[in-house]
Amino acid sequence: MDITLDKSSNTEASISIKLTEADYSEKVDKKIKQYAKQADIKGFRKGKVPAGVVRRMYGTSILVDEVNHLLSHAVEDYIRDNKLQIIGQPLPNVENNANIDWETQKEFEFSYSIGLVNDITYSTDLTIDTYSINVGEEQLNETIENLLKNGGEQTSPEVAEETDKVTGDLAIEGEEEAVHVMVDIAELATKTGKEIFIGAKAEDTITFDIRKAYRSNEKVATFLNREEEEVKEIKGDVTLTVKSISRIEEAEMNQAFFDKILGPDKVTSEEEFRAEVAKVMGENYDQQVENYTARQIQDQLVEKAEMELPETFLKRWLVETQEGLTAEKVEEDFENYKKEFKWMLLADKIAADNEIRVEDADVKKRAGDMFKAQFGAMGGGVDNEQLEEMLKGIVDNYLKENNGQNYMNIYNQVRFDQIIKLATEKATLNEQDVTFEEFTKAVSEA
What family name appears in the similarity comment (predicted)? Predict the structure, then answer.
């Protein structure tokens, strides 16, 4: 076997492999003998099929399999042994590999394109704007007012009002079956649209223009619970036969309301309730600020990093490995792809330079915290031993699902946080005290 590397640039190269009969013949012969022992061919006793018969019937396919297996390992070994830093996976050059006569050829030559990554330099000398959000009295009052509006009991009034939801069967021209839908009157696009539904009762039929009620494909798709592509041709009047009306009555500021929102006996007075809601709001704001700060750090790290990407190779690699992705779409979005590739390489570099390690226990703890938060959101706890054991089983199953992709997703989240923590400690942070509205404005303008 003869393997050579041909570099067309600092970042683009091809690996050429020449195989002689000696490289593969022993493996092919061994595989043919194995087939002969297992083959069940008419006219021969099982396990007694002559190797020559197997070679005539299956020799070519066995040869192809063994050569491909040999090539795969040869390329991997060459990259590892020569310490080539590549991005993506090697791509077979079909035009060079296509004209092969597997029936008669004894010697073969194949080539694979690879994308190389050379030196990566980066700086952690960052200056980041970060924020401390004050929970103002007006914001607190508005939040509590919304909690009261949405925290009461659900009722089924006879006549619809503007804040109600109407469910029923929707008839669309050209479709044989009606669609069961829910109309949130308050979310309709026009005042006229709202007025059509106000006063509706069960078994009423209401005809309305779906495009005036929901003014985008996205909203029409959400309303009908379909994909956007499916609703593009749905236009004009549709007819809803009302089946029921639902209303959330405004809650009263009492112990039942406190318990429903915060959990049993968490607070016992309006003053304590306001303080706890303000605390939760502050924690939510802190998380939003933390996420925004992390994004800024990631963006600045990528912006300051210096590396040369094999752009031609990457464009081809994306098209050939991502289902449904066209060359035109790759070209259109390539700047975003470049940022993703740069971050991937940069994260590996920073982690290696700073000996950042993610252990299995770290992954399981993060997944456990994720499910604990879900249990907490449902008003449950995970303090007792039985529930902790149940949680362990849920985490183990989750991390094994999707062929291990869930595990890698959590792994990358943990490593991301460790890298951001390291960069944050080295960065200059300009912290500002702001209201939530000021923070939202700053984020939108960034």
Answer: Belongs to the FKBP-type PPIase family. Tig subfamily.
